[in-house]
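Same chain as my last thread, 101 residues:
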Amino acid sequence: EETRDAALLLHVVEAGASDRDDLMHHVDDVLQQIGADEVPQLVVCNKIDQLDDHSARLDRDENGRITRVWLSAKTGEGLDLLRQALQEYFPEHHEQLDYIE
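reply #2:
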């Protein structure tokens, strides 16, 4: 029930996982089964430090909305981009998000 009522779901995936897309589809199937498939999702691709191209970045859709954040929780690279993404999704909570370190 909490999932269906969420304002945003953070879908954390391992950036370099060979089966990343399959795992994401599986999660999407589960969300559909529980009636939460309409809840907005922000995909967080973690462990970019293990990739050849380990640049932190944001991906946006055709409307300019952030859809993916590429980061490394281990090194901290890209955490500022996650904070930026959350601020864009929740501009009314800008001050509270400033405390996320």
